[in-house]
Amino acid sequence: MCYSLIIGEIKGTWPVHISGGKLIKVGIIGASGYTGAELLRLLKAHKKVEVTYVTSETYQGQKISKLYPNLRGHFDLKLSPLEVTEAKKRAELLFIALPHGESQRVVRQLFNESRVPSPELRIIDLSGDFRLKSADIYEKWYKIHHEHPELLGKAVYGLPELNREKIREARFVTNPGCYPTGAILALAPLLKKTAVFEKSIIVDSKSGVSGAGRVPGFQTHFCQVDESVKAYGVGTHKHTPEMEQELTALRGEDVMITFTPHLVPMNRGILSTCYASLKEELEEEITGIYEDFYDDHPFVKVLGEDELPETKYVLGTNYCHLSARLDERSGRVIVISAIDNLGKGASGQAIQNMNLILGFPEDEGLKAPGVFP
Amino acid sequence: MCYSLIIGEIKGTWPVHISGGKLIKVGIIGASGYTGAELLRLLKAHKKVEVTYVTSETYQGQKISKLYPNLRGHFDLKLSPLEVTEAKKRAELLFIALPHGESQRVVRQLFNESRVPSPELRIIDLSGDFRLKSADIYEKWYKIHHEHPELLGKAVYGLPELNREKIREARFVTNPGCYPTGAILALAPLLKKTAVFEKSIIVDSKSGVSGAGRVPGFQTHFCQVDESVKAYGVGTHKHTPEMEQELTALRGEDVMITFTPHLVPMNRGILSTCYASLKEELEEEITGIYEDFYDDHPFVKVLGEDELPETKYVLGTNYCHLSARLDERSGRVIVISAIDNLGKGASGQAIQNMNLILGFPEDEGLKAPGVFP
Amino acid sequence: MCYSLIIGEIKGTWPVHISGGKLIKVGIIGASGYTGAELLRLLKAHKKVEVTYVTSETYQGQKISKLYPNLRGHFDLKLSPLEVTEAKKRAELLFIALPHGESQRVVRQLFNESRVPSPELRIIDLSGDFRLKSADIYEKWYKIHHEHPELLGKAVYGLPELNREKIREARFVTNPGCYPTGAILALAPLLKKTAVFEKSIIVDSKSGVSGAGRVPGFQTHFCQVDESVKAYGVGTHKHTPEMEQELTALRGEDVMITFTPHLVPMNRGILSTCYASLKEELEEEITGIYEDFYDDHPFVKVLGEDELPETKYVLGTNYCHLSARLDERSGRVIVISAIDNLGKGASGQAIQNMNLILGFPEDEGLKAPGVFP
Amino acid sequence: MCYSLIIGEIKGTWPVHISGGKLIKVGIIGASGYTGAELLRLLKAHKKVEVTYVTSETYQGQKISKLYPNLRGHFDLKLSPLEVTEAKKRAELLFIALPHGESQRVVRQLFNESRVPSPELRIIDLSGDFRLKSADIYEKWYKIHHEHPELLGKAVYGLPELNREKIREARFVTNPGCYPTGAILALAPLLKKTAVFEKSIIVDSKSGVSGAGRVPGFQTHFCQVDESVKAYGVGTHKHTPEMEQELTALRGEDVMITFTPHLVPMNRGILSTCYASLKEELEEEITGIYEDFYDDHPFVKVLGEDELPETKYVLGTNYCHLSARLDERSGRVIVISAIDNLGKGASGQAIQNMNLILGFPEDEGLKAPGVFP
Questions:
Q1: Could C316 and D371 be called an inter-chain contact, meaning their C-beta atoms sit closer than 8 Å?
Q2: Among B33, C278, C370, D194, which is least packed, fewest CB within 10 Å?
Q3: How confident is chain A (373 residues) per 10-residue block, as mean pLDDT?
Q4: What pTM, to 2 d.p., does this model score?
Q5: Interface test with D, best of B70, B223, B266 (most D CBs within 10 A)
Q6: Helices (H) and strands (E) in chain D, counts
Q7: ipTM for the assembly
Q8: Between chains, do A209 and C225 touch, taking CB under 8 Å as contact?
């Protein structure tokens, strides 16, 4: 399957009516979850779009500000059950914030049963359903069947730091996973610019609890999480092949990653500590390599030699703070990235993608500094 | 001393040059603390001012974004040691975010050794030095001598929900304390509109740790605070007379308050649970009384009968969420307010006051919803 | 109904076989919840009993150490579904750690359908089902019907600091609620020894999340609780009449309490800040009154004038730390108590009661200091 | 320098008077810090020793229970300034809980200026001063000069799972670091029993804040730590050579470790996620290798295939919970260990060592299950 051709099928010129001064109408399918609520919070500050349609099956008929009282006074919207025809009528761009498995079906319906989306609609899918290009790999790691493999590969992988130009022309963007965002941003310069062993890579990530979503369970009970750290999904987490797919594409060689996610007693944030072994000595300073790579990317900040990232400083934002260190004794590079899993790891990045698609300034709606302390 | 006359002395028409399209220059004296950093975070979103001057003795010469990496990419300012002449030259409005005791001297200097401030400068003092109108009461509760009692009473108490019009005309505003803000907003409608016993009032407040400031000590050591709740300053907290002074002024009768602050393991937020006994049965629904009182006040949200405030929902904002309940068995009213101690309890309110003083929309720079979760 | 007569019916001399060197067999009905697990944790250190029977319907067949890995290596017990006959055969004393509503039925069955328990069995019920002596009050506050009102009043209220001698002779003890334990210990000396107004009492309590139990829900989701404080059950919490009943009995006059519970982001601990107005000036120091009252009570520690309780210092223990302060301005006494809601507030106190019933040293199994930090 | 000879010099038969029924007298030099307080907490449950001497320069004259109110009612001891002669007179075994750098001098003095300790005294040093056998390596990683290199190598490395018999005969034990304890326990079976590449090892650890000690600073301010994760000491942490030294000794080949510690918002606990690459396929199940290795070691629990360690479950204990997993794709083994940094990572292990030295049951005083939740 030819990746560039597929992308070709769904790119296009943005309709004339959007370039005017009017606000663009956007909708959120599955607005009752944390990524939906974070989209709303961030879109409040966006000057060029208005949210016109928010859906939830479970909470239909309720005001979103009842579910999320932080939105009180900001949104008067009521949650509707999803109707595909209505969705298309009410919004020019849809964020899909459904769980994986559910998103497949909805995207298929929105695409009118044809192999390509309708020309009028833009879709940014925050689920994992369209990130992997292979249905087999999807089924192996997600442990569910993919019902619409014909759509795999049609979505542009929405990591602007790697795919900015493709995203600008896309109608269908698959928003990266939270862990892959932190890991790929940490590893991309290394894999693009240096001679590391492609199979030496370890990603050890520490995440806040909101990554587990809003629906309660033992794993997110306060008393189970508080005052504790644990690993989970050791060797089996479904974000692993996503990291490998994108870094392999970037590197041009098969990249293999050992990925261990951990749960940490905090609401938001992912710190990814990434390890890779060098094939030969570096010719430049490692920090310089990162500064060069991210020079033009407004949301990635390479920290100085005397600093290290802390998730707290990017809380509520679309930023990624990162530091790279050379461990001379072992010939390993250690790169540490901090993101907000709901920000650059989900909703913030989705809005960054929307800005690229709609031709807005890339940071529109994403300018607020992190909330500290 | 006649309060209204004093106010008269320092009110005035805002100079013409401010009404133009130019950005107003503002400075922050004592910018290295949490309230200083929060002012900067919030001012980033403000469209009508620019921060031109930030001071710190301890961190002079350092970039503010080094001290607060959440501000990286947002402010390139360096901290200077305070020089009064320079401060006046560089800014048209100054926020003073110094500890109590230190603020007195600085305000005195900024006021040119005369009894009234210079006509060109506006001052919003976030310390406790000018909130109380009596030097004796200040010394009794703050346990230090007031060096400039001649300035007491010259500042307008900057709680817009009670003093909006006075603030609009003020050149010198004393920003309310964090606990008094939550307590006064909770109690004002009751004391203004109902027959409660003036000496029956109890305020039981629960605060996050940032209220204790940035300088480390045993009381703010993570291991001392985490997984614990405690009361402190029982019967002796210096915010007590501030609550009494303002509520007495509102009520027209001596109000006496028993105030107990508590420390809770969280960064931000104050929940104040306030109790008062009714002299006679209420004639209207208690929630209705609150809705009427706060109808025109954009930052106070009276919650519905089936809701209660949680500090989390106002995190990072200038909002106050509150609920009032009548306990029929005891004839007591229980009012609960939630604010962010650095938001409506300090820097957010300071910006609201600035907006009033400078004739901007009251919510300019303060429109972001709370960060949840 | 005559309280002392009822107690008379169920008291008795402890069977001879118990006084020997053998370990007494105890069981836990409903061992899968937090109070059940805490009983096991504490009983591990107890030298005179062995746990022989643990039940759970939901987790039947599972090892308790699978559910609570902190018990791994300490208990090899499997959870069984409850069978009343088996329970009586396997244990000489049963802790009932079921939710209210469920406990009623089980206690009735254990009592052999007669109005009094069998002479061989001792029961300590940790639910709220037998704390109130009036079925009407139970139904009003618990919002469910009491199926076995004939058993109300037969249980001794298991607060050793008030009822030690009655507990020693009891066969059926109702273990106090977590909030009432903290509040009654804080208020008992005041109501017994001083002239406070009986209707002036306010109890403002702050609890950790384990008080809400192990079953997940939105209210205990980490992201809902963390970084937040809220009040709940304002004026309606079911522990209110329990406080009133016991303090009224102690005082000999009707005591009325306004009680507001709050949820705080920590696992364990309750801090209760209690307020009461004096009818006349105290003749002694308030701390002295408390020291005298609790002189002989090993688990209540009255702190010095320069200290205030913190829940952290009693974490994991059966202790209550408390401070009393006179607020001379208002004529109010403020008493603050700290307990562990699973310790003195539930399982620790249940073991203290067991020790009294079985004639063991009162602190057997309860000697460990709190875990700090 | 011959390790076994040195050990020979200081081993010996335990004096007769100790074998009687009397309590052994122990002292704690530097009792005001967290490890000192944790020693006291745990020794409360120990039936064969009594604490007779506790020192602190800063808090001399104060009761230890004033500094640590969780010890109220358990210890009536006052802190004294250290006097070496007094220490020897008052205690038969001394725990040294001083910071590194300070411990050197004190141990030298206790050893009577001779090269070997006096026959009457046993010393367990919890600092890092005597863990490394090379003064050069000490100075390189600790960044301070070692004043008494003649004592290096005289102490037995007090990890009972590797050195039990040597510890039994030792008079001078150097208690392992918190991170090395977790990492060595996780890696020892692998390095002893399998063909892993000695330079492929990565240890990624996540620690609670109490590891940073009791003295306040910006790094332990609640607002700096709460809701955040960060790495620190990347490639430079002083526990690295300790891990390498002990694992090299065990393996018989040079082991090199990349170690990255992280700070997590919790009081206690270290989770170490360790990675190593296999030279060849394993012939047995990885979990079986670990179960065999730790079969006789009471404090290490190898979890089942369906479990993973969480620090919460070992809170307050001397246990290490661990899981090993084979990642077949990469040929890596991932081993995860959980300890309490103040338990098995410091004071618990020190007591385990004392038990071995004094011939007590190894788990005396260490039998309590973890505190959950």
A1: yes
A2: D194
A3: 30 41 94 98 97 97 97 96 94 97 95 60 97 98 96 95 97 97 98 94 98 95 98 98 98 97 98 97 95 97 96 98 97 98 98 98 97 96
A4: 0.94
A5: B223
A6: 12, 13
A7: 0.93
A8: no
